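Re-run requested by the PI after the first attempt was lost when the workstation crashed. Everything re-entered from the original request form. Ligand of interest: phenylalanine.
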Amino acid sequence: MSSKRAEFGSRLGVIAATVGSAVGLGNIWRFPYEAGTGGGAAFLLIYIVFVFVLGVPTICAEFSLGRFSRQGMPGAYSKTSGSRRWDFLGYASILAALMILAFYSVVAGWTLEYIIESVKSMFGDVDIADRHGAFTAFTGSWTAVVWTIVFLIINGLVMLGGVQKGIERVCNVLMPILFLILLAFSVNSLLMPGARQGLEFLFKPDFSALNAGVILSAMGQAFFSLSIGMGCMVTYASYFKDDTPLVRTSIEIAALDTLVAVMAGVIIFPAVFSFGMSPAEGPTLVFEVLPAIFHQMTGGPFWSLLFFVLLALASLTSIISVSEIVVTFLCDTLGWRRVKATVVLTLFTLVAATLCSLSFGPLRDLDLFNAFDFISSNILMPLCGLGVCVFVGWRMKRPEYEAQMRGRSRVPAWLFDTITFCLRYIAPVGILSVFIAGLM
Ligand code: PHE
């Protein structure tokens, strides 16, 4: 056990990996439809408040815990507190990670099918008469299962490479590509006839659309999108160097993640309005509405291909980070080698994801897909998020927390105080209300 713990090699690598974790289906698939059904700009405004008031302090808490203990879940709790009393939070995080892996990789698998469809449509017309029927038939089929398996195998291969040679290297390449694709799309979208209407929907708030439900879903969306409340940032921070500035990195993640969500809105809403569709379409917005739009656009197949490649890359860098929670646990706590941990996790996830995928077909009655989504997002993530805020805010020794937060970087006193105040008071109360409302 004397071998040195892996580390991220550079600060750029840290940003690529953590932003890669945050930016995913949550931004490009979930955010636009949540904003679309939640009234657009009003939702966006509330969302941004949650990201900075609850999100940044929680990321800081997870980072402090991970780097101080140099352990993943649940070891970070026991090492920092010197007792096992908090370990249940760590185990709950691992359970959440396993469930997220199972349903997230199903949607990630769909993106591969859409990539192939886009390529096919470059060479011949595809039938778009019954989009909804086609989507329903595909998601319930074994083809969807096969794509999910392909995705998980790619994920496993990256994981085998380890923190620096696998995760960091892949994220360093994929994240810049992702931002370039987003940029190309944003420009294209702004040139569309419905651009003005789309942008007004996204940026001109109409507060009459707001109600308690919308506010709560904005908070849930902020947690999911920032990858907090399940030990992901704890795990990554356990591989940070001592001089990685935690506060600055947290703010950068929050800002970039929000930027991508806004860009996804800028890409999708002008197109939706230009082609006379409804922004409040729900979860199928990206998989049913967008393909219909691409079909009518000049150069449609090309944009379609680019979009689903974007979605696939964003999903991969997120799934990697969820896998790392479990792999780090198996290595840190059970002392397994990385290869064994990765293989066992991949096999386990193959089975769980297959069951989730079949929730759209033969296993409709069991519906593990929605059950896992509900239990992880509405129960485990708020519970673990609350736990980490309370633990770091109240239980971790103040000098240890301060040493992590301030480190060798200069953090202005007002910023440190504000974050700490939000961490100790605002975040626990805020999160508790989501949790209760989420259950109701
Ligand atoms: N943040 C990711 C997204 O927006 C999802 C995720 C959740 C990743 C939790 C890691 C941990 O898609």
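Saved to the shared folder this time. The pocket of phenylalanine is lined by residues 21-22, 24-27, 100, 224-225, 227, 230, 232, 318, 321-322 (CB under 6 Å).
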